[in-house]
Amino acid sequence: MWRKRLVIPFVFLLLIGIVSCQKKAEVKGVNLKIDFSEENLTDNLITDMQYTWTIDDNFAKFTQDLNIYVHFWHGENLIFQDDHFPPVPTSQWEPGKEYVYSRRIYIPSFIDEFDPEFKGEETLKLQIGFYSPYDRTGE
């Protein structure tokens, strides 16, 4: 059973965008919902991450198959990533459709519970977007 949203000890921020070496572009008509199989997330944990991509009617079709980048940041440190191609290539995505798939991830150990500054929870930033693995540009 999939449980929605994230609970203490982590708070995730979701940023969706396209990355490029030169510029960032906005993707219109693509919505993303993320669910985790574990209700409580912590470090040193294996969990399933479900992606639900909903394509709106105002979606401008991608002209190439784009890779999806998934980066988990703790402060200024990238603690892990799960870049991947979706099961249905992005060039085949169509308005009015929904694309759902899951990927298993491992959240590595990064919490120092003996740190006097540790307040019982940590914040991770989850950054997700698209890029071309062939020429490192986005669309």
Short recap of the structure:
The protein has 139 residues and is an all-beta fold. The chain has one domain (3-131): Sandwich (Immunoglobulin-like), CATH 2.60.40.
Walkthrough of the structure:
With 139 residues, the chain is an all-beta fold. The chain has a single domain (3-131), classed as Immunoglobulin-like (Sandwich), CATH 2.60.40. It has no helices and 8 strands. The protein has strands at 3-4, 10-18, 30-36, 45-55, 67-74, 77-81, 98-107, 122-131. A 4-stranded antiparallel sheet has the order 1-3-4-7, with no helix packed on it. Strand 5 (67-74) and strand 6 form a beta hairpin. It starts with a strand and ends in an 8-residue tail after the last strand. Residues 1-23 have low confidence and may be disordered.
Features:
mainly beta; 4-stranded antiparallel beta sheet; 139 residues; disordered N terminus; Immunoglobulin-like; single chain
Question: How far is the first residue's CA from the last residue's CA?
Answer: 35 Å
Arithmetic mean of pLDDT: 80
Q: How many runs of DSSP E, i.e. beta strands?
A: 8
Structural class: mainly beta
CATH class: Mainly Beta
When the domains are counted, the total is 1
